[in-house]
Amino acid sequence: MKSKSDPYSWLPCDNAYEMPDEWLDLLEDVPEKHSMRVLAFYGKESFGRSSAYVGPIFYDPEYGTLTLKERELVALVVSSMNGCVSCVIPHKYNLGKLLDDHGRAERIAINYRTVQLTERERAMVDHAVKLTESPNTSDPGDLRILRDKGLSDQDIYFLVELIATVNWSNRLTSGLGLRVDDEFSEMIAPQ
Question: Domain 21-188 sits in which CATH superfamily?
Fold first, then answer.
C-alpha cells in the first residue's frame, strides 16, 4: 500500500524508469528500493559505482574485519545522531535481528549511552559519534583508545571507513528526503 501523501523522495522521479538488472542485484538486501530508484535516476553516472562500494561495507559478512553486528551498531548510532530516519529504521531492524532483541536495538537508537555495551563496542560508537559530530577534533589519542579496547589497526581502518560511509549516506538520504519503502515498513510493523 503506497502512501499518497509521502513521496519516496523530494525529487520527482519518472515512474517508468527501470534500473538495470546489475544494479537491482546490488540492492538485493536494501529496504529502500524505491528511494534507490530515485538515486539511480538522477545519479546514473555514480550510482553503480557507489552501490558496488557501499553494499559490501554494510552487507557482506566477508568484508573487512568488523562483524555485521558491529557494523549495524555503528550505522545505527551514526544515523541516530544525524537524525536520518530513513537510515535508522533499517539499521535498527537489522541490528535487532542480529541481536535477537529488537527492544535493545530500539534503546540503542534512542540513546546508546543507556545500553550496556562491551568496552570494544562502546569505544567504537563513541568514536563514531566524535567523527560524526566534530571530526576536526580527532587526534592520535583517539586511536590509542580504540587500540586499548582491542581494535587492531585494520579494525580501526574499517571502522573509520564505515563511519564515513554512513555519514555520506545519511547526508544524501536526508538531503533528498528519501524514505523507507512502504513494503519494508509493513514487513517490520508489529503484528
Answer: AhpD-like (1.20.1290.10)
